[in-house]
Specification:
74% helix; mainly alpha; 99 residues
């Protein structure tokens, strides 16, 4: 797997993780950290400036696509409440209708 593919996959997963916990404004500091980390890794690996810029672009696109995908996942498929997953057995609260 190529280096650019790895960056896109990791940043997409990072975007999904950010969408699971934070709002859209959290992408700004995450994008800065992603840009710094990607530029450092590209420089350490001895990539040319054009390759580093392409990796930065792919990293930011992957981060944003992951955020949109993660937001869609959490909107379309909400996590069920714990009470729905494990209904009460033989309890008075479960048999009484809510007034």
């Amino acid at each position: 797997m190529g280096f650019a593919t790895t960056i896109v996959i990791l940043n997409t997963l990072l975007g999904i993780a950010v969408a699971a916990r934070y709002n859209v404004f959290a992408l700004i500091p995450v994008a800065f950290v992603t840009m710094i980390a990607t530029a450092c890794v590209g420089a350490v690996c001895g990539r040319e400036l054009s390759a580093i810029l392409l990796m930065l672009f792919l990293a930011l696109v992957g981060l944003q696509v992951g955020y949109v995908a993660g937001s869609g996942i959490f909107i379309l498929a909400p996590i069920k409440r714990l009470a729905d997953l494990f209904p009460a057995k033989n309890s008075a609260a479960a048999s009484d209708p809510v007034a």
